[in-house]
Amino acid sequence: MLKSYFIKRFLYMLICLFLVTTMVFFMFRLIPGNPIGAMVDPALDAAAIENLEKKFGLDKPIVEQYFIYLKNILKGDFGTSFFYREPSFDILKGKIINTAILALVSIVTAYVLGTIAGVWLAWKRGSWTEAGVIVISLFLRSAPIFWLGMLAIMAFSYQLDWFPNSGMLTPGYSADGLFDKYFSLDFAYHLFLPAFVYSLHHFAKPMLLMRNNIAEFMYEDFVEMARAKGVSEVAIMYRHAARNALLPVVTSFTISIGLAIGGQVLIEYVFGWPGLGREIVLAAKRYDYPVAQASFILLSLTIMGMNFFADLLYGFLDPRISYQ
């Protein structure tokens, strides 16, 4: 049963990936404009423009371009960037790491603090404190992320001058290897503000999940038994009820990681964070089809992979779940 489930899920993922690659290919070619026009001076003579089109394969019919594109992807070739004139995957390797770090730090922070706050809110159920925290967190969740980012930049970068307004490292900073680049104080200094804003935006989901789940366990036999033994309310909430209510939060966390990696385009663009999301926006502006296509495919693979991992984790954490 488990083997057939894996095969079925793998086939579904292949179908989804095929649909994504097809939609991405045609979507960018429907955008008004021409990549050659974005690369060269319009005054360039027609022969030179025609040579560039041949070089990048843009002179062929769109259907032929599509099949060449599919064949290259099967070989692991995402094409050469029109703008950078380098293989697309080589350009995106560093961007993927930058995006993953921002997503992981933000979502882990949101879920750790949100889970603790959710347990505390369940304890304060029915109070004005609970109502106030829920209203604020829902406001932060529903507010456009780019608007929160601009407010944070205006307050903490321009008014208070506490944090930089963009970038990942201070201009001129030279990192000696990957460890020094990602584990330096300068990197943490630039990471704090975008991660803080993104965490605030996602804080409400784990908090409300935990609060609602704990409410279901508050009158279970094991909780009543703990009260009868004289266990304090804090210990009951955090040691007993919280442990049983964590399952939906954990599975939500894995899905949120995948969605965060694929969905932080706006936050990266607002903060000038050199990640995959920002590169998609820049590639679309430059009509850089290979980079934009490769970015979407990598994001889709990440989201599908994290969803699959969430399914497996759910079954591992809850033995009552069976794969069919």
Describe the 3D structure.
The chain has 2 domains: 2-74, no CATH class; 89-317, MetI-like (MetI-like fold, Orthogonal Bundle), CATH 1.10.3720.10. The chain has helices at residues 2-29, 35-39, 46-55, 62-74, 88-123, 128-142, 145-159, 177-182, 185-202, 204-217, 221-228, 233-263, 265-271, 276-286, 289-317. It starts with a helix and ends in a 7-residue tail after the last helix. The chain is globular, with a radius of gyration of 24 Å. It is mainly α and 324 residues long. 76% of the residues lie in helices and 0% in strands.
Count the E strands.
0
Order of helices and strands: HHHHHHHHHHHHHHH
Briefly note the structural class of the backbone.
mainly alpha
Query: Can you summarize the main beta sheet?
Result: none
What is the arithmetic mean of pLDDT? 77
Residues in helices, as a percent range: over 70%
The CATH superfamily of the largest domain turns out to be MetI-like
Uncertain ranges: none
* Number of H- or I-type helical stretches: 15
Query: Using only CA atoms, what is the Rg?
Result: 24 Å
Number of spatially distinct domains: 2
Strand portion, in percent? under 5%
How far apart lie the N and C ends?
6 Å
Named CATH architecture of the largest domain: Orthogonal Bundle
Q: What coarse outline follows from CA principal-axis ratios? A: globular
CATH fold annotation of the largest domain: MetI-like fold
CATH class of the largest domain: Mainly Alpha
